[in-house]
């Protein structure tokens, strides 16, 4: 159908022609714009949900970057009153050993997001690299990698992570490495799939026929064409990693105290929820970090949704 | 041999091979243990003799393949070895067989999983199919927005909100899911309502979205347009033309989400302090009780593999190309 | 329902006035059909012809009152036998569809439900609309299968769609459309996906059954020669507007519009054949197999005279594209060799040196996928200049501009991306990329078959001019006999991985032919409304004699 429309759009100029000239044949409507202009035009057309998502992400990033400036107290600073009420001094009260909840929320943004981001990058480095190699090689390397990844993926990743953490212990570095490796299996699958679909394109064959080396084919022909789905996947994987780390911390085997982290904050203050009928504010306290997690993942999902919609060209039917 | 049978057997063989490979991975994790582990488990006071005896008991003096075969064959018979906990330097061994720890808890976990699945699977299929049929309607948009939000939310957030609303502010359900072997069935159902509800909410969101996508994908097939152009009513299009081709994608969606449910159980059990395998595994991870961790991991992985296997087999036996070969 | 087929030919069946349909793409609505009228009388067959994007399929479906998802009817009236389809409810339309109006789709393989038996799908609409009870409808379907010349008409219906061939499926779909004895059938490019030899049988079957039941039909296609066999009169569409409408014979003999004439533009190119004995490339006794198992080429030998065009013709699966892969080294042969200027070429691509690679270039069928969408025209054409000829910077740009002029485009194209070009321009850029290597031989793999006729003509003329100016040798792979006539010096006919014959154009195209060549050549529709009738008559006579 779409060809119907693009052609129709071109009709105005082409219908008049009698004698044929290749240069006069009208291509798609074209206006040269700089990259920045194009990005801004794309942004202006973004739906409300995407704007909401981008705003939230921006605020989170700012909070994470400027945590020491924004937080009223230190990350591990202990006050005499545990489970203190919400008041002017401690806006969200204090936690089970008397640390300021607001300050820990702010520092938590930095720790939780930072660790998730590093993990996601690592997982893309591993999974993306191997996926590309497998897609281009398509022989024994591909076979071995794909089979091995299939097996790794047969173990639920949270369970696998729990098992490995029990062996290596819950340090930040082992947390990052374990989750990055487990998550890279999914990145591998996606990268391989999209790269294979690009690698069978005629222009890749044309480059190989020209005698181009593997590096050139990978860098110049394949990589630029698989970026959009990979960028979208980065957002989704980040959410997944972020939730996994939060879940592990919540279970007490993730990020360890005294580092402020949203997952373990929920766990530490969970008992407060019982008092909600007497003091609603206190009851809500353990939900604050959980809400912070949910808000960020919802925001990322909104942005990814819009991005996928925009780049895939797939549109809902009207 | 009939191609369906051949394909099913092939898939089964692949499943068994995967299970064996997974068991090897789980088993070999023990060889990654740091050297002083025996000391750590038994405590500082343990003598060199007891540590050496302990290592011998773990079989660390035998070659790895032999240990693997022993471990896997006894695991198949339900013997997962002895828990690390309860051992002390004093030499008095109060540790229990892993099986005794897991047995009753496995029943609890299965009970919770089945409970949640019974509610969530029909609900998700219903929501997904109706959303696909009335896509872009207000109903579809609302269901979509709601599920996107739920998907992005950690399980424990959902769980605590439910506790806040249905246990703390309006005490309808108990906030802790205390059950023992003697708890009667109905009482058990009542006490596990909140964990089951939490799991349901999370699963329904995923499953509904996948079902919707699968059905929309199916409805875009040329043969569906053809059915419409033959004057088939929307009902006929769905029941006669879409459904017979939908079993494979739907089975995949269900299996994927049941597998997800099995994992989600870990967090939910922790929130509600429910005595299940997930909770046991988390405790074992904290205390580094490796035999228990291994046993739990194997059980979870096997469940996962079997569910996916079933989905694949449903896909195979409902594929007309395989059912009616040329 | 439609027992009133007996009513005289001439009552108006479909009347569409000022139809306007919009489609949604690129975040906005576009006009697809811009005010077209259409009148069809009972028993008449109308040909709806136009190139890709003309809106012919959209208009054809609109005649049933159907607009596909993503489109909407924004103006005009549709009367089917007095019923206002533009404003009819879904229920009213469903009552007509599958009983009084039937549809035959392009891709039969995708349009049959894989889960049901063919006979059940054939009679489904007839039974559900209570036109006939099931038992009667099934018996009737078997008779329809028989008159459509399907093999084993009694049992073929109990098969599933994947168990029969594409040509058979298309005939069964015609039976499905005919089963309720509708007043109107919409044929939407029903033979486009078929090979020519299959197409003839399907066309003949469809025509005879439409004539037998005196059904009105709208036949949608881009191929004028095909529609000439089927239609009483033809309407030409372009960009959603009507170009002209005329009775078939009149349309072919003296079309009023220049655009209509351009629809058979390729047939107007003539190239005198020039013999030559100077062999540039030779494929000798080549066997090739995919995955080391399935042998797809058997003892293929082809000779390419220097500065000439050799056309390789054959249907899908004949091995013509595989031959190209053997020459380029993508698929090393398991037997035989490729000799270039008398010297054997290394079999595999990776063993050939840069100079050997440079001398043989390739142009693909789909220019869309043959260019990296993220590289500009300058990068695409400039790369071989850098890579093979070692030029740098300004020199490359200068050469790219020269090449652009050579393919009749100007330097303003240099910073465009492929997505900003039309189909013909893309294919020209691909030609320029091949020329940039300064090759001796260019392999053209169906380079014009994805293009509209008028664009095809331009590309073919360009290739001929370049050959004359640069002394290029072409290996031209195609399934289109008109193209072969237009440009070749020699012809190779391939069938099931074997060369049937090779020789100068005049020899191959003139009788007597080997059996397969005869079948292939005679199956190509000609611009003559009587062609199919004549062909069937002569084939029947032959059968009776043989």
Note down, in words, how this protein is organized.
The complex is a heterotrimer of chains A (318), B (326) and C (546). Chain A has helices at residues 2-14, 35-44, 48-65, 67-70, 101-137, 140-153, 157-168, 172-199, 202-210, 214-251, 262-269, 280-284, 287-312. Chain A has 318 residues and is mainly alpha-helical. Chain A has one domain: MetI-like fold (Orthogonal Bundle), CATH 1.10.3720. The longest helix of chain A is centred in the C-terminal third of the chain and has 38 residues, at 214-251. Residues 1-19 and 313-318 of chain A have low confidence and may be disordered. Chain B is mostly helical and 326 residues long. Chain B has a domain at 98-323: MetI-like fold. Chain C is an alpha/beta fold and 546 residues long. Chain C folds into 2 domains: 2-264, Rossmann fold (3-Layer(aba) Sandwich); 268-371 and 425-517, P-loop containing nucleotide triphosphate hydrolases (Rossmann fold), CATH 3.40.50. Chain C has a 6-stranded mixed beta sheet with strand order 6-7-8-3-9-10, sandwiched between helices. Mean pLDDT of chain C is 89; it is low at 1-8. Classes of the chains: A mainly alpha (318), B mainly alpha (326), C alpha/beta (546). Chains in contact: A-B, A-C, B-C. Chains A and C meet through α1, α9 and α10 of A and β1, β2, α14, α16 and α17 of C.
Keywords:
heterotrimer; A: 318 residues; mainly alpha; MetI-like fold; 70% helix; elongated; disordered N terminus; disordered C terminus; C: 546 residues; alpha/beta; Rossmann fold; 2 domains; six-stranded mixed β-sheet; 25% strand; globular
